[in-house]
Amino acid sequence: MRRFRVGIDDLRKVCKPASLGFKTTKDVKTLEGIIGQERAVKAMNFGLRVNNKGYNIYMAGINGTGKTSYAKSLAYNVASKGQVPNDICYVFNFKEIDRPIIIEIPPGTGEKLAANMDELVETVKKGISKAFTGEEFDTQRRLIRDKYQKDTSELLQELDKIGKEKGFVVRQTSKGLVSVPLVDGKPVDQMEEELITEEITKEIQEKIPEMQKLLDEVTRKIKVLEKEASMELVSIEKKIAMAVIKPEIDMVREKYKDYLKIQVYLDNVEKDMADHLNVFKIKEEDQSLNPLLPLQMESHLSRYKVNLFVNNANQEGAPVVCETNPNYYNLFGKVEGKANIGGISTDFSMIKCGSIHKANGGYLIIHAKELLKDPFAWDALKRTLKNQESVIENIGEQFKIFPTATIKPEAVPINVKVILIGSSYIQQLLYNYDEDFSKLFKIIAQFDTSMERNKDNILMFSQFVSSVCQLEKLKEFDKTAVARIIEFSSRLAGHQKRLSTRFNEIVEIVYEASAWAEIEQSQVVSSTHVERAIEEKINRANLLEEKIQENIIEGQILIETEGEVVGQINGLSVYNLGDYSFGKPSKITARVFKGKKGLINIEREAKMSGKIHDKGVLILSGYIGGRYARKSPLSISASICFEQSYGGVDGDSASCAELVVLLSALTDIPVRQDLAITGAMNQRGQVQPIGGVNQKIEGFYELCKERGLTKTQGVIIPKQNIVNLMLSKELVKDCKAGKFHIYSFSHVDEAIELLTGFSPEEFFERVQTKLEEFAGDQDID
Fold it and tell me: How many CB atoms within 10 Å of residue 398?
């Protein structure tokens, strides 16, 4: 037994406080960068500096390894040396009113342009209102009106004269000019009907067409005069208005003389203002009489405003945006609407930007899981990155049977590097099922869950604790506290030579240890506070573990920890509750009887086993056949069962235990119940490492301790798992005192020797003899 026993020093890798080289974290520099992720750091540094299309980054790894914090830190560092991107403005398109256009101008200029245009509109509105209420305009308008009236009067006088010569009198009515025949100098409509003879009527009808022709000609001339007067009045109005508009626009034009697109826009503004002078001429008294006039006026004047879509006035370096809620609209913007009488309206001023526009020219950080929750966001992101432009549209439009008339803004040119953060599982799914993923995300930064436990990384780990203390204003940690956290980190990593990079769990212990030090009014955090934080964290999560322990102690779950039993063995299982896992023994039993059904896995027959467990049982069958049935076939039937297991079984870590219990049932050799065993095996009987070794050992130890340690109890583990041992201090202490034992094995023959006391040769002979007996009985049958 002694040759299989694991040495005390191998049960836990202790971190000696004296080796840290400081008294408290106050003596340690704060951490710069990230630790234990050299591979990911290289990938990130390269990816952030390659500006070619498709070199976006996917950061892969489990939660809590610092991906998001590192992505922000590194992106801000690189972005600080980058160029501030241009402001982006949307303005009214005077040629296609439903297609607003983009103007890109240097950062900070967008605010000025928007302010200049607001000021321009107000100045022009006041200036035109003043100009059209002045004496000069009234004089010119009166002259035009007088001239029109004079010319019209002359035409009417001439018409009246000619009409009388032809026997008609001309009258002006609401319907225009009409002629009334004269009989003996008297209008016919004023004569008695009986006095109008047929001869008179005939004579009048002969004259009417000529007179009507004259009337039409005069009417046409009057309309021409009216139109000329109107055009002359409009011309004067434009002239007066342009005297106000042009100087103001020229002042704005001068400020942006280096920007051709703004110059073209201002030309269109000038022309549109001149063509819509009536809007500027609306008087206050008219607005009070017609409530709709102010709305109409505001609606028209809004076309001269500037929609500052992306404002980089206060930006330093390239932008870095971390979108925590990456739904479609938050990422790609939208066109909003406002309720009006009779419906909803929109215009270019209601185009709102998204995160991808704010990050344009810089870096956009998104969590893959959140992004993929939105059914439209992922496809839109791929389309944007492929086309390098963002089309702003409301997603509902493409699903309507009858499309609604709305604006279609000009696409925004996009030059952004996307950093997608997610698990390796999501990365593999996207790579295998989305052909665009590998084209758009060429850089994969893999984040490891652990790092090497060496002197440099321990120093950096101490710096990390120091950084947390300073950033969160926690109490300082002394060297014993840091040493205990390092041991806790190795326990999380499940390896004596490695430290965990699941910093979120480590930070929780740092927070809670500081809180316990505060409660106990300690000046610094020591190892006792860290130990208390770890214990309390476990106590908050181990209710199920205690209930199972109670059931075992009370005999509700049948587990023996003393004596020997044929066909029964203590295997070890791990229960994973998400944020907490623990180990407990499981009774495995086997029965062997005559027959040719071979090995029956009761869990599989009941559909309560996983594929890995099924594979382990099949490997077990292969080993037995290869070892014991090379000369004659196996003529037995056997069943294996995890007793009182109702939640399903998976994994192959019980395959060694299953082999021993099966052979025990076959040979009637009892198995020690004061030992529990865990370990997977291959078809040659070689032992393979398993997971959760610390939890499994401690689960059996806690049960034995509760019942009373007998000094013979212990656990058998694969030799390869010795390096994974980070057992509790209490367990190590009892092992050192000889109250509990940890054994290791590398072949199933060694497990058989430990559990039965038989040498491999003796055990082989017993199995062979028993199989021959079964085969002989079968032949007789």
Answer: 9
Q: Report if residue 564 sits inside a domain.
A: yes
Instruction: Record the tokens describing residue 17, joined without a space.
Output: 């406080």
**In this structure, is residue 136 part of a structural domain?**
no
CA distance 36 to 451: 5
State yes or no: is 653 an active-site residue.
yes
Nearest to 549 by CA among 674, 729, 704, 692: 704
pLDDT tens readout for residues 585-596: 999 998 888 777
**Same domain for 26 and 50?**
no
**Which CATH number belongs to the domain containing residue 564 in this structure?**
3.30.230.10
Q: CA–CA separation, 452 vs 723, rounded Å?
A: 13
pLDDT digits over 679-733, tens only? 999 989 999 999 999 999 999 999 999 999 999 999 999 999 999 999 999 999 9
| N-to-C CA span, the chain | 43
Contact in structure between 233 and 144 (CB atoms under 8 Å): yes
Q: Are residues 558 and 525 in the same domain?
A: no
| Percentage of the residues of the chain whose pLDDT score is greater than 70 | 91
Host domain of residue 48: 37-85+315-447
635: its two tokens: 């003529």
Q: Say yes or no: 571 and 657 in one domain.
A: yes
On whether the CB atoms of residues 58 and 420 are closer than 8 A, the answer is yes
* Whole-number Å distance between alpha carbons of 424 and 449: 12
The tally of domains found in the chain comes to: 3
Residue whose C-alpha is closest to residue 648's, from 595, 692, 593, 603 = 603
**Is 358 exposed, middle or buried, given 0-12, 13-18 or 19+ CB atoms closer than 10 A?**
buried
**In this structure, are 439 and 454 located in the same domain?**
no
Catalytic residue among 450, 653, 655, 744: 653
**Cα separation, 52 vs 518, whole angstroms:** 52
**Nearest to 262, CA basis, from 85, 86, 391, 84:** 86
Contacts of 546 (CB under 8 A, 6+ apart): none
Beta bridge partners of 569: 588
Q: Return the higher-pLDDT residue of 347 and 201.
A: 347
Co-location of 589 and 672 in the same domain: yes
Q: How many residues does the chain have?
A: 781
Helices (H) and strands (E) in the chain, counts: 27, 30
Q: Which of 13, 67, 358, 696 is catalytic?
A: 696
Q: Is residue 258, in this structure, part of any structural domain at all? A: no
Return d(Cα 230, Cα 141) in angstroms, integer: 10
Q: What is the 3 state secondary structure string of 676-730? A: EECCEECCCCEEECCCCHHHHHHHHHHHHHHHCCCCCCEEEEEHHHHHHCCCCHH
- Structural domain ending residue among the three candidates 491, 512, 539: 539
Spatial separation of the C-alpha atoms in residues 652 and 639, rounded to whole Å: 17
Q: How far apart are CA 321 and CA 68, in angstroms?
A: 12
Element (H, E) at 499: strand 498-500
Same domain (yes/no): 558, 518? no
- The single-letter DSSP state of residue 24 is B
- Given a cut of 80, whether residue 39 has pLDDT beyond it is yes
Q: Is 696 in the same domain as 749?
A: yes
431 shares its domain with 490: no
The per-residue pLDDT for range 524-558, each reduced to its tens digit, is: 999 999 999 999 999 999 999 999 999 999 999 99
| Contact between residue 364 and residue 377 where contact means Cβ atoms under 8 Å apart | no
- Domain boundary, last residue among 504, 539, 574: 539
- For residue 325, give the CATH number of its domain: 3.40.50.300
- Three-state DSSP at 353 gives coil
Q: Do 510 and 516 touch, CB atoms closer than 8 A?
A: no
